Amino acid sequence: MQDSPKTPSNVVKYRKGSSAKEVCEGLRRRILTLDLRPGEPIDETQISEMFGVSRSPVREAINRLSAERLVVALPNRGAIVAPVDLIGFPQFMAALDLQQRFATRLAARHRSSADLVRLEMLATEYNEAVRSPDSVRVLEANHDFHLAVAEAGRNDYVTRQYGELLSEARRYLHIHIEYLMATSGRGLLEDQHLDFLDAIRARDVEEADKIAHEHTLQFEERFLRALRHMPDPNFQIEAPERTPDR
Amino acid sequence: MQDSPKTPSNVVKYRKGSSAKEVCEGLRRRILTLDLRPGEPIDETQISEMFGVSRSPVREAINRLSAERLVVALPNRGAIVAPVDLIGFPQFMAALDLQQRFATRLAARHRSSADLVRLEMLATEYNEAVRSPDSVRVLEANHDFHLAVAEAGRNDYVTRQYGELLSEARRYLHIHIEYLMATSGRGLLEDQHLDFLDAIRARDVEEADKIAHEHTLQFEERFLRALRHMPDPNFQIEAPERTPDR
DNA sequence: TTGGCGAATCTTGCATGCAACAAAAATACA
DNA sequence: TGTATTTTTGTTGCATGCAAGATTCGCCAA
Predict the structure, then answer these.
(1) Nucleotides of chain D within 7 Å of a protein C-beta?
(2) How far is the CA of A244 from the C1' of C1 (A)?
(3) B17 vs B70, more confident
(4) Residues B105 and B66 in one domain
(5) Which pLDDT value is given to residue B227?
(6) What pTM value is reported for the model?
(7) pLDDT digit string (tens) for B195-224?
(8) What is the span of the domain harbouring residue B189?
(9) In this structure, are A142 and A218 located in the same domain?
């Protein structure tokens, strides 16, 4: 029919229902990879220019991310990237442990054989990701595997709540992985999920629970150790730069 | 479908940052009390006229409620009040049970004496609410008590996720309470929370866990029984009315 | 220099307008 | 009469405009 009725050229607009989605996903990725630093203020106008859209879809995206607790809204004063709260870290891990154990138990009980195939695939992808230099790929692979475990458990409420925690975990995991890659410790990450698979395949609920718990504990311990020995002076909990303006 | 909640005169606007909040809370209450029926379509224009604001704050409110899973967004076709999914009810109860047990355990472990005072107050309010004819008051009192238990547990993540489930539970509880009030069975609701208080006061973690679990089971059983004997022909899972226009 | 007060500036929250998409109605056609 | 196609109507998603708060800056006094 037509391709460009009157749109003022250079800005290629997204399709109708996708601007907000695009912005939301773009921001989420930047937040989860710490590309946007915790505590950093989010300026609606700036973001809208960045994505070439108006402020409306940006506001919608910020609202959604705020619901995901990836940004916190300050009334009348916009929003900031949610701080990575080290005080709250043990609380976070306690909540994650609970959901991870329960989700993995459910998976061991309710998984179908199709689930097993999918999990095997994702576990393989994870192992390949670990051997690649792409740390974001590791984050994604880890997230996808655990989410697939939850989905195999056939409880939407658990999947959703566990998924929220897994999203947030990506930020901690990112810190952890950067450390391991910098210190040649990436071997520690290999084959992390094979024992999950075994227990789920065997429908061994108690074993699945135990493995999930140990997995959480191991991550917590390693993350805290990485923090102690953090060799990367770039990382700061509070955003250090951006003093010039605003 | 009925009167507008506030806005006495036509131009009296809410204060700056409060339109969306007002709409959000108004809609939430109507949804949780089943005043807006599950599955009912939500028209932005209609809602905006109802609250006397423009569509912007209405959209924001709908987004937030969508994040709370109280409404479901349909791309390009607006939103509907989230259906009360009876198929998913056992799954919901499983998730609620998990969080309720964990939250109550945490409360027993970490509660301060100030928490005890607050919980006693809320338990009293609950008992008074049960003896009043106001079913919404019972819903609120029940919700507030359990949320306060979670807060006494000092884990923000658990409080948040448990709180989300408690919100959703209000819709089920509403069905349940209407049934009890109609069948003079409200005595069953009395003193529901005193045993929680005892266990939390005694810092008896295992007992708290057990009581929380029994509480969930009891609710599940009673709700299902109420469904079987539902004397109220008004309640339908699918919205029956509103055939004329959408 | 420091601290307070008011104006300028910036950012947000809401209102409004318009175009894209979906549903419904009307029309054409077999 | 039934079905396919077009027209019409309605609603959503996004852009834009404007005013309320907040922030910043300048000025002045202590």
Answers:
(1) 11-17, 20-24
(2) 23
(3) B70
(4) no
(5) 84
(6) 0.85
(7) 999 999 999 999 999 999 999 999 999 999
(8) 89-228
(9) yes
